[in-house]
Amino acid sequence: MKEAENKQGSFKNIWYGIGRKRIEIPNQVLRDKVIDDPLLNSLYISSLGYYPNAKAHFTKRKKGLPGNMLFYCVAGHGFYELRGETHTVNPNEFFILPYDEAHAYGSQEKDPWSIYWIHFEGKNLPAFNEINAVKDCFKSTRIKDNGEITALFNKMYESLELGYSADNLYFSNLSLRQFFSYFIYNNRHHPVVENKELDSVDRVILFMQEKLQESLTLADLSRYSNYSVSRFSNLFKQKTGYAPMDYFMHMKIQQACQLLDFTDRAIKDVALTMGFDDPYYFSKRFKQVIGMPPQQYRAIKKD
Protein backbone atom coordinates (compact mmCIF):
# COMPACT_ATOMS: atom_id res chain seq x y z
CA MET A 1 0.00 0.00 0.00
CA LYS A 2 2.88 2.42 0.69
CA GLU A 3 3.95 1.98 -2.92
CA ALA A 4 0.51 3.10 -4.05
CA GLU A 5 0.36 6.00 -1.61
CA ASN A 6 3.66 7.35 -2.92
CA LYS A 7 2.39 7.41 -6.49
CA GLN A 8 0.79 10.45 -8.07
CA GLY A 9 -1.88 9.22 -10.42
CA SER A 10 -3.81 6.01 -10.93
CA PHE A 11 -2.68 2.72 -9.43
CA LYS A 12 -4.76 -0.43 -9.97
CA ASN A 13 -7.72 1.71 -11.07
CA ILE A 14 -7.59 3.91 -7.94
CA TRP A 15 -6.31 7.49 -8.10
CA TYR A 16 -3.83 8.75 -5.54
CA GLY A 17 -3.19 12.46 -5.23
CA ILE A 18 -3.31 15.52 -3.00
CA GLY A 19 -6.77 16.25 -1.57
CA ARG A 20 -8.12 12.81 -2.44
CA LYS A 21 -11.22 11.72 -0.51
CA ARG A 22 -12.52 8.19 -0.84
CA ILE A 23 -14.69 5.83 1.20
CA GLU A 24 -15.27 2.22 0.20
CA ILE A 25 -17.85 0.50 2.38
CA PRO A 26 -16.55 -2.96 3.38
CA ASN A 27 -18.35 -5.90 1.79
CA GLN A 28 -19.00 -7.31 5.25
CA VAL A 29 -20.89 -4.15 6.21
CA LEU A 30 -22.92 -4.30 3.00
CA ARG A 31 -23.77 -7.96 3.60
CA ASP A 32 -24.66 -7.48 7.27
CA LYS A 33 -26.47 -4.14 7.20
CA VAL A 34 -27.55 -3.20 3.68
CA ILE A 35 -28.18 -6.04 1.24
CA ASP A 36 -30.97 -7.62 3.32
CA ASP A 37 -32.53 -4.31 4.43
CA PRO A 38 -35.66 -3.61 2.33
CA LEU A 39 -35.27 0.15 2.83
CA LEU A 40 -31.71 0.19 1.52
CA ASN A 41 -31.14 -2.71 -0.84
CA SER A 42 -32.96 -1.30 -3.85
CA LEU A 43 -30.15 1.24 -4.50
CA TYR A 44 -27.22 1.76 -2.16
CA ILE A 45 -23.76 3.32 -2.02
CA SER A 46 -20.80 0.98 -2.20
CA SER A 47 -18.12 3.68 -2.54
CA LEU A 48 -17.82 7.41 -3.15
CA GLY A 49 -15.15 10.05 -3.38
CA TYR A 50 -13.80 13.39 -4.50
CA TYR A 51 -10.68 13.75 -6.65
CA PRO A 52 -9.51 17.38 -7.01
CA ASN A 53 -7.25 18.33 -9.91
CA ALA A 54 -6.90 14.62 -10.63
CA LYS A 55 -3.73 14.67 -12.71
CA ALA A 56 -2.92 11.36 -14.44
CA HIS A 57 -6.28 9.88 -13.43
CA PHE A 58 -7.16 6.95 -15.67
CA THR A 59 -9.23 3.80 -15.26
CA LYS A 60 -10.10 1.05 -17.73
CA ARG A 61 -12.33 -1.95 -17.02
CA LYS A 62 -12.93 -4.60 -19.67
CA LYS A 63 -15.99 -6.01 -17.91
CA GLY A 64 -17.24 -2.93 -16.11
CA LEU A 65 -18.42 -2.99 -12.50
CA PRO A 66 -21.29 -4.74 -10.70
CA GLY A 67 -22.86 -1.31 -10.10
CA ASN A 68 -23.34 2.03 -11.81
CA MET A 69 -20.98 4.96 -11.38
CA LEU A 70 -22.00 8.61 -11.44
CA PHE A 71 -19.32 11.24 -12.12
CA TYR A 72 -19.78 14.98 -11.62
CA CYS A 73 -17.06 17.23 -13.04
CA VAL A 74 -16.83 20.59 -11.25
CA ALA A 75 -13.60 21.85 -12.84
CA GLY A 76 -11.12 20.90 -15.54
CA HIS A 77 -11.76 18.42 -18.31
CA GLY A 78 -11.83 14.68 -18.82
CA PHE A 79 -13.25 11.94 -21.00
CA TYR A 80 -14.89 8.55 -20.90
CA GLU A 81 -15.36 5.66 -23.30
CA LEU A 82 -18.58 3.67 -23.42
CA ARG A 83 -20.20 1.47 -26.08
CA GLY A 84 -17.53 2.24 -28.63
CA GLU A 85 -17.77 6.02 -28.29
CA THR A 86 -15.48 8.54 -26.62
CA HIS A 87 -17.12 11.48 -24.83
CA THR A 88 -15.48 14.65 -23.57
CA VAL A 89 -16.45 15.95 -20.14
CA ASN A 90 -16.42 19.65 -19.29
CA PRO A 91 -17.00 21.60 -16.06
CA ASN A 92 -20.58 21.38 -14.74
CA GLU A 93 -21.23 18.15 -16.62
CA PHE A 94 -21.96 14.66 -15.32
CA PHE A 95 -22.43 11.19 -16.70
CA ILE A 96 -23.44 7.71 -15.54
CA LEU A 97 -21.67 4.48 -16.45
CA PRO A 98 -24.06 1.49 -16.47
CA TYR A 99 -23.12 -1.70 -14.67
CA ASP A 100 -21.43 -4.69 -16.34
CA GLU A 101 -20.31 -2.71 -19.40
CA ALA A 102 -16.74 -2.16 -20.54
CA HIS A 103 -15.61 1.41 -20.02
CA ALA A 104 -12.68 3.73 -19.50
CA TYR A 105 -12.39 7.24 -18.12
CA GLY A 106 -9.76 9.74 -17.13
CA SER A 107 -8.65 13.34 -16.82
CA GLN A 108 -7.31 15.57 -19.56
CA GLU A 109 -3.55 15.92 -19.35
CA LYS A 110 -3.32 19.70 -19.67
CA ASP A 111 -6.38 20.56 -17.58
CA PRO A 112 -7.21 17.61 -15.29
CA TRP A 113 -10.70 17.37 -13.97
CA SER A 114 -11.97 17.66 -10.40
CA ILE A 115 -14.74 15.14 -9.86
CA TYR A 116 -17.24 13.89 -7.32
CA TRP A 117 -18.19 10.28 -7.92
CA ILE A 118 -20.43 7.58 -6.46
CA HIS A 119 -20.45 3.84 -7.16
CA PHE A 120 -23.89 2.43 -6.35
CA GLU A 121 -25.52 -0.97 -6.57
CA GLY A 122 -28.86 -2.53 -5.70
CA LYS A 123 -31.49 -5.01 -6.78
CA ASN A 124 -33.45 -2.28 -8.59
CA LEU A 125 -30.49 -1.17 -10.68
CA PRO A 126 -31.85 -2.79 -13.89
CA ALA A 127 -35.13 -0.90 -13.49
CA PHE A 128 -33.25 2.31 -12.66
CA ASN A 129 -31.26 2.04 -15.88
CA GLU A 130 -34.45 1.60 -17.92
CA ILE A 131 -35.74 5.05 -16.92
CA ASN A 132 -35.55 7.22 -20.02
CA ALA A 133 -34.12 10.14 -18.06
CA VAL A 134 -31.36 7.85 -16.76
CA LYS A 135 -30.55 6.51 -20.23
CA ASP A 136 -29.99 10.11 -21.32
CA CYS A 137 -27.31 10.39 -18.63
CA PHE A 138 -25.12 7.74 -20.24
CA LYS A 139 -23.96 10.72 -22.30
CA SER A 140 -22.31 13.70 -20.61
CA THR A 141 -24.97 16.19 -19.57
CA ARG A 142 -24.64 19.80 -18.47
CA ILE A 143 -26.37 20.77 -15.22
CA LYS A 144 -26.93 23.74 -12.96
CA ASP A 145 -25.91 23.67 -9.31
CA ASN A 146 -26.42 26.40 -6.74
CA GLY A 147 -24.38 24.47 -4.20
CA GLU A 148 -27.04 21.91 -3.24
CA ILE A 149 -25.34 19.00 -5.01
CA THR A 150 -21.92 19.36 -3.42
CA ALA A 151 -23.47 20.19 -0.04
CA LEU A 152 -25.52 16.98 -0.07
CA PHE A 153 -22.55 14.93 -1.24
CA ASN A 154 -20.46 16.27 1.65
CA LYS A 155 -23.21 15.42 4.14
CA MET A 156 -23.40 11.86 2.81
CA TYR A 157 -19.62 11.52 2.86
CA GLU A 158 -19.25 12.96 6.37
CA SER A 159 -22.00 10.68 7.65
CA LEU A 160 -20.18 7.57 6.40
CA GLU A 161 -16.90 8.99 7.66
CA LEU A 162 -18.35 8.72 11.18
CA GLY A 163 -18.75 4.96 10.78
CA TYR A 164 -21.24 2.41 9.53
CA SER A 165 -23.94 2.64 12.17
CA ALA A 166 -27.52 2.00 11.07
CA ASP A 167 -28.30 5.74 11.31
CA ASN A 168 -25.33 6.72 9.15
CA LEU A 169 -26.16 4.10 6.53
CA TYR A 170 -29.81 5.14 6.47
CA PHE A 171 -29.00 8.83 6.19
CA SER A 172 -26.48 8.47 3.37
CA ASN A 173 -28.46 5.94 1.36
CA LEU A 174 -31.84 7.62 1.73
CA SER A 175 -30.14 10.88 0.71
CA LEU A 176 -28.89 9.08 -2.40
CA ARG A 177 -32.36 9.32 -3.98
CA GLN A 178 -32.41 13.08 -3.61
CA PHE A 179 -28.83 13.24 -4.88
CA PHE A 180 -29.89 11.42 -8.06
CA SER A 181 -32.80 13.80 -8.58
CA TYR A 182 -30.45 16.80 -8.67
CA PHE A 183 -28.79 15.23 -11.70
CA ILE A 184 -31.45 13.23 -13.51
CA TYR A 185 -34.20 15.81 -13.07
CA ASN A 186 -31.98 18.86 -12.75
CA ASN A 187 -34.44 21.24 -14.43
CA ARG A 188 -37.04 20.48 -11.75
CA HIS A 189 -34.76 22.03 -9.12
CA HIS A 190 -34.32 25.28 -11.05
CA PRO A 191 -37.32 27.47 -11.92
CA VAL A 192 -37.81 27.97 -15.63
CA VAL A 193 -38.02 31.62 -16.58
CA GLU A 194 -39.07 31.35 -20.19
CA ASN A 195 -40.92 28.70 -22.14
CA LYS A 196 -38.22 28.68 -24.81
CA GLU A 197 -35.90 27.03 -22.29
CA LEU A 198 -38.15 23.96 -22.25
CA ASP A 199 -38.09 21.22 -24.83
CA SER A 200 -41.18 20.63 -26.95
CA VAL A 201 -42.67 17.93 -24.70
CA ASP A 202 -42.31 20.02 -21.54
CA ARG A 203 -43.93 22.98 -23.28
CA VAL A 204 -46.87 20.84 -24.37
CA ILE A 205 -47.35 19.49 -20.83
CA LEU A 206 -47.52 23.06 -19.51
CA PHE A 207 -50.01 23.83 -22.30
CA MET A 208 -52.09 20.82 -21.23
CA GLN A 209 -52.08 22.06 -17.65
CA GLU A 210 -53.40 25.44 -18.78
CA LYS A 211 -56.16 23.80 -20.85
CA LEU A 212 -57.32 21.07 -18.45
CA GLN A 213 -60.90 22.30 -18.56
CA GLU A 214 -61.00 22.29 -22.35
CA SER A 215 -61.24 19.57 -24.98
CA LEU A 216 -57.98 19.33 -26.90
CA THR A 217 -57.23 17.00 -29.79
CA LEU A 218 -53.98 15.32 -30.75
CA ALA A 219 -53.83 17.70 -33.70
CA ASP A 220 -54.05 20.67 -31.29
CA LEU A 221 -51.14 19.35 -29.24
CA SER A 222 -48.92 18.48 -32.19
CA ARG A 223 -49.60 21.90 -33.73
CA TYR A 224 -48.53 23.56 -30.48
CA SER A 225 -45.33 21.49 -30.46
CA ASN A 226 -44.50 22.48 -34.06
CA TYR A 227 -44.08 18.82 -34.99
CA SER A 228 -46.12 16.47 -37.14
CA VAL A 229 -48.62 14.29 -35.31
CA SER A 230 -46.51 11.14 -35.72
CA ARG A 231 -43.23 12.81 -34.76
CA PHE A 232 -44.77 14.54 -31.76
CA SER A 233 -46.48 11.35 -30.56
CA ASN A 234 -43.21 9.42 -30.73
CA LEU A 235 -41.26 12.12 -28.88
CA PHE A 236 -43.93 12.43 -26.21
CA LYS A 237 -44.16 8.71 -25.54
CA GLN A 238 -40.39 8.37 -25.51
CA LYS A 239 -40.12 10.99 -22.77
CA THR A 240 -43.20 10.27 -20.64
CA GLY A 241 -44.07 6.65 -21.37
CA TYR A 242 -47.62 7.70 -22.37
CA ALA A 243 -49.39 8.62 -25.57
CA PRO A 244 -50.18 12.38 -25.51
CA MET A 245 -53.96 12.05 -25.20
CA ASP A 246 -53.63 9.40 -22.48
CA TYR A 247 -51.35 11.74 -20.54
CA PHE A 248 -53.81 14.61 -20.96
CA MET A 249 -56.62 12.35 -19.74
CA HIS A 250 -54.60 11.38 -16.66
CA MET A 251 -54.02 15.07 -15.89
CA LYS A 252 -57.75 15.78 -16.23
CA ILE A 253 -58.71 12.90 -13.95
CA GLN A 254 -56.07 13.92 -11.42
CA GLN A 255 -57.63 17.39 -11.28
CA ALA A 256 -61.09 15.83 -11.03
CA CYS A 257 -59.90 13.84 -8.01
CA GLN A 258 -58.95 17.07 -6.28
CA LEU A 259 -62.40 18.53 -6.96
CA LEU A 260 -64.00 15.38 -5.55
CA ASP A 261 -61.69 15.45 -2.53
CA PHE A 262 -62.00 19.10 -1.58
CA THR A 263 -65.42 20.24 -2.78
CA ASP A 264 -69.01 19.03 -2.49
CA ARG A 265 -69.78 19.70 -6.13
CA ALA A 266 -71.97 17.18 -7.89
CA ILE A 267 -70.16 14.66 -10.05
CA LYS A 268 -71.86 15.94 -13.21
CA ASP A 269 -70.58 19.44 -12.38
CA VAL A 270 -67.07 18.10 -11.88
CA ALA A 271 -67.36 16.37 -15.25
CA LEU A 272 -68.45 19.59 -16.98
CA THR A 273 -65.68 21.56 -15.30
CA MET A 274 -63.10 19.13 -16.67
CA GLY A 275 -64.48 19.39 -20.20
CA PHE A 276 -66.72 16.29 -20.25
CA ASP A 277 -70.19 17.00 -21.66
CA ASP A 278 -71.32 13.44 -20.91
CA PRO A 279 -71.09 12.48 -17.20
CA TYR A 280 -71.32 8.78 -18.10
CA TYR A 281 -68.29 9.04 -20.35
CA PHE A 282 -66.51 10.92 -17.55
CA SER A 283 -67.29 8.08 -15.12
CA LYS A 284 -66.02 5.53 -17.63
CA ARG A 285 -62.70 7.32 -18.16
CA PHE A 286 -62.37 8.01 -14.43
CA LYS A 287 -62.69 4.29 -13.69
CA GLN A 288 -60.14 3.42 -16.36
CA VAL A 289 -57.56 5.70 -14.74
CA ILE A 290 -58.34 5.37 -11.01
CA GLY A 291 -59.76 1.85 -10.93
CA MET A 292 -63.19 2.81 -9.56
CA PRO A 293 -66.05 5.15 -10.54
CA PRO A 294 -66.10 8.69 -9.11
CA GLN A 295 -69.01 7.92 -6.76
CA GLN A 296 -67.04 5.13 -5.10
CA TYR A 297 -63.87 7.22 -5.02
CA ARG A 298 -65.63 10.05 -3.19
CA ALA A 299 -67.31 7.64 -0.75
CA ILE A 300 -63.99 6.01 0.16
CA LYS A 301 -62.34 9.38 0.68
CA LYS A 302 -65.10 10.44 3.07
CA ASP A 303 -64.90 7.23 5.16
Automatic annotation (TrEMBL):
It comes from Niabella soli DSM 19437. InterPro entries: AraC-bd (IPR003313), Homeodomain-like_sf (IPR009057), HTH-like (IPR037923), HTH_AraC (IPR018060), HTH_AraC-typ_CS (IPR018062), Tscrpt_reg_AraC-type_HTH (IPR020449). The keyword Cell cycle does not apply. The keyword Transcription regulation applies. Keywords: DNA-binding, Transcription, Transcription regulation. Residues 202-300 form the HTH araC/xylS-type domain. It comes from the Bacteria. GO terms for molecular function: DNA-binding transcription factor activity; sequence-specific DNA binding. Gene3D superfamilies: Homeodomain-like, Regulatory protein AraC. This is AraC family transcriptional regulator. PROSITE patterns: HTH_ARAC_FAMILY_1, HTH_ARAC_FAMILY_2. It holds the Pfam family HTH_18.
